[in-house]
Specification:
Keywords: Membrane, Transmembrane, Transmembrane helix. By secondary structure, the protein is mainly α. The chain contains 16 helices and three strands. About 3% of the residues have low confidence.
Amino acid sequence: MSDLLAYLPAVAALWLGCYELRLLRNGSDSPYAVRCLCRFGFCMAAAMALLAAPTMHLEWPWSPQSTHLLGREMEMAALAFLPLAVIEIGLPRPRLLTGRLHIGVTFSALVLCAVLFLSSGVRIRHGSLLAEGTGAVLLASSDTVFTGYSLWCLAVFLVPVHRFTRGLGAGALRTGLRLITASITVGLLWALWGVSAIVTMAVDNRQSAGLDPVGRMLGLCCLVLGVLGGTAGGWVSATTAVGRWLRAYRTYRALEPLWSALRAVSPGTALDLGWPSVRLFSLHRSEFALYRRVIEIRDGYLELRAFVPPDARALSDAALARFPVPPAGRAAMAEAAVIAAALESARTGPGASGDQDAVLAYPADCSVEEEAAWLVQVAEAFTVAGLVEHMRHRVGR
């Protein structure tokens, strides 16, 4: 199991590369930038697979030292595509940073890192790189070039992306870029952790041949955040829709007491749809179900207006005196009291001459969401212990 966990960073990077490849095939406004991110994902996946500890113990036609060097070179090649993506998109950046300059720096870093590594006479024993004397200095220098180049690429990518993100409004793009910013921040910590390899080589003449546990964890966090940010356009809309459905379902259930009470005294209206008291439906239909329930309560209101007692205002004032609520809830409590009185009037006698002007402060010219929010307040007030019984007693006198 631990061997499989060692390849999780490679899986995360591969997932990002495949996602960007799909975007590239489906068409993109910045195909070259997407191509850079796609290549970043695939190169980083190869690097993480090569630098995983189990890979270092496999039998290869070449030496294990070459596997380590190839993994480092692939990681540097992957990071090289991040500044190129920023340059292609056109985000603000230092004027001196051009594609040609960056490619030149990248080529020089790759060659210098490889030359220093191969000149160090490094050998591998028990999963560690060993070097002595001048070789240790050369290997530490190779690590320094690798760490410095990694920090350079990540910083050049992070600064313009962070500045661009600050000017965006809420949405999938800002969420994705924030996650990418967090990913690169963790990546900087990951690159800085490379200093530990330089220190251990200088002090003990040894360092880990693959990713050590801390480096693997930082790499995994960095790449997972990068995957979440890079794929935000796909999953943010889905999670937003699910959240909207859940809110609609909770509102739907919160309206149950008021809906049931209106339906009980108006079986001949549109409320009588033959539905059970707890409606079963798929979650993605919750918004439609809520809309139906609001319409049914609205029809119930219309039916109930004829049964509002003539002294509705006095009844609502009495309810507010008996069941005190904060100022923000007084309107909903008064409405619930009038509804309870009208329901009792409809239950006990034929059509009373309703107080058409006093009844029911039903919101007008509002959205379904605002209407539902108001009805939820009324439904919550309607379920206050003793309210319905009190109004039943007052109406029945």
